[in-house]
Design brief:
Two copies of one chain form a homodimer. Chain A has 371 residues and is of the alpha/beta class. The first copy, chain A, is built from twelve helices and 14 strands. Helix content of chain A is 41%, strand content 15%. In chain A, a hairpin with a 4-residue loop joins strand 6 and strand 7. Chains A, B: Its cofactor is pyridoxal 5'-phosphate.
Chain lengths: 371, 371
């Protein structure tokens, strides 16, 4: 078998994003045991920094030992029991995924939809809550990775809480790129991933749960259907008791620790402004060059921009050329948008001025070659 | 927040084991995307090498995106539907865990037990099969990490297949240390972890499924209760279709690729002999020094040795001294063995002659200090 090669890739897709060299170094740190006193220090530091980035005081704030989708599943398996009514907002792939995951937990799911590229209308959620009696949980995606739509949360949260439901938010592509503000936005359950705006490799899913969510877990009548994602047990390992549950992905926790440290050293406000500035610039440049953005105006994520490919172009071939000639990875469209859009991520360490210029130059060149 | 430190630890516990420097380097390889053509090559190579180490031709052989317990859960959520009858062999913590996981899938579980430190008697499995009508699956642990017991598989497998059941084996601590021989042993479902004898960091769980197991999954009447671990979908990403499911833990796959390459370069037979020789030597040295081994003679794992601490000694304090003075980590007892045994791992890169000598010397010193 051939030895592993290092490839020269610029990751400008919907994730993973480029990883800071110091985070790569952390990945290569010699291991310590998952019950080593030093690892407990690293765990505590990681949790403290995660709370800051999530904007929460939630005690139950930990990175789950799987990628973002494991975080999604964590929220549903822990909060939902068979028969529970759940409203899932669907305006892209990740809303659809939440619906699938919730149903596998035995939830009775009511969908609130919007066209892909549009945000969810809070009034539609209100109507669904009024029509459906006791709803346990309303779930929404803050940063829809399949479309680049940014979902405002405050008004939705108020409506959800007026109706006594728990509020769950997918912040996989949001966390570390735009404010999530878990406490201020009244979010009860929130999950993310390490490989987007946190700029660590994929492999962990930060999750945070409010006191109300923790109470809901305590009041369960049935066991959580997943042993691996059972927060009741995992919290005993990440908390003071340090009960062994499963062997934590130690190197990934090292990497997340360093990624969070670098992010907080830059300062949350500076990080958000950098994402905002570079994202806006890319979107302006794309529009000036005649491209149509997918996400509705006023609801565009700075860290992920979806734009329509001119008709008649071969999406796969163009992306292959971009990769082969420039080493640049961008994402194609998912589901109904397959072949129609490109998704360009300026996330975390990938979000800088040079990457905007480079991408626009490379895009023009590739299009010229395919005229 | 303080920067991450590198600690000087010698990992001689029940896992994680020491990681080869070239595998640590692989962890720091700059990322490529999870849909990058080069990553597909790495995935294919990893699967091919996993098949060699598992001793199987199974097409469905992939590393799941979680630690060993996620592999355990993968086997049960995919093979079990509510009401299915399952026999779980329990002679340690990981047998108990399998029972818990199986029950969370709605299985009706029949236990076959043996005292901790003893292997499971195949006749007991035969009796349980004869008594319980149609059993779908029999599950057993090949290398019980809580006791150091090695379970012979061949006879059990024959009994299981005579009764038309599927045979599932936990090889978390076995794979890469002793032969698992999936095809030769008629194993239908097998899972492992990266942080034991494969000597990669924790974070992936290699899983392999026989054609019969794949058929059983195809014949399911209900959806797999875990979206994250649904092999039907994940196989489409690791197979030729390359359908996006979740973002693979790319760096961990890099590390596993290199760990497997190093292992196979040494040669499976050489690797097994190294584990056998060093494990036997450690066990002889311990016995010569007057320690009692926990596992029954003839059923001792070379890669993990459990021995009884002399009575009246403070387990926690002694292990803390071993860590502080020597940087050596070993494991304590779990469950009913808490405070009574130490578990010493000579797994993968940790299995060498120097570590046997060093551990024996350090142990004597610590005991002398605590006389």
């Amino acid at each position: 078998m051939k030895q592993l090669q290092s490839m020269n890739r610029l990751l400008l897709g919907p994730g993973p994003s480029a990883v800071h060299p110091d985070v790569l170094k952390a990945m290569a740190t010699p291991l310590v045991g998952h019950l080593d006193p030093y690892f407990f220090e690293v765990m505590n530091g990681t949790r403290e920094m995660l709370r800051t980035v999530f904007g929460t005081k939630n005690e139950l704030t930990i990175p789950m030992s799987g990628t973002g989708s494991a975080g999604m599943e964590t929220v549903f398996v822990n909060l939902i029991e068979p028969g529970d009514k759940v409203i899932v907002c669907v305006n892209g792939v990740f809303g659809e995924r939440m619906k699938d995951v919730a149903e596998r937990c035995g939830a009775s799911v009511v969908e609130v939809t919007a066209p892909w590229g549009q945000p969810i209308d809070p009034d539609e959620i209100r109507k669904a809550l009024e029509k459906n009696g006791q709803v346990k949980l309303v779930a929404i995606v803050q940063a829809e990775t399949s479309t680049g739509v940014r979902q405002p949360l405050k008004e939705v949260s108020e409506i959800v809480h007026e109706h006594g439901a728990l509020f769950a938010v997918d912040s996989v592509t949001a966390l570390g790129g735009i404010p999530v503000d878990v406490d201020e936005n009244g979010i009860d359950a929130c999950y993310s991933g390490t490989q987007k705006c946190l700029s660590a490799p994929p492999g962990l899913s930060p999750v945070t749960m409010s006191d109300d969510a923790v109470q809901a877990i305590r009041k369960r009548k049935t066991k959580v259907q997943s042993w691996y994602l059972d927060l009741g047990m995992i919290a005993n390992y990440w908390g003071e008791d340090r009960f062994y549950h499963h062997t934590a992905p130690i190197s990934m926790v090292f990497a997340l620790h360093e990624a969070l440290r670098i992010l907080l050293n830059e300062g949350l406000e500076n990080v958000y402004k950098r994402h905002e500035d570079n994202g806006k610039l890319l979107q302006q440049e794309l529009q000036s060059a005649g491209f149509e953005l997918l996400a509705a105006e006023g609801y565009r994520l700075p860290q992920l921009t979806a734009f329509r490919l001119p008709q008649g172009l071969d999406d796969i071939r163009l992306r292959r050329e971009l990769l082969n000639l420039y080493g640049i990875e961008v994402g194609g469209g998912l589901g109904p948008l397959k072949g129609q859009i490109w998704r360009v991520g300026l996330m975390g360490h990938s979000s800088n001025l040079a990457n905007v210029r480079l991408f626009m130059g490379a895009l023009q060149d590739i299009l010229n070659r395919n005229k």
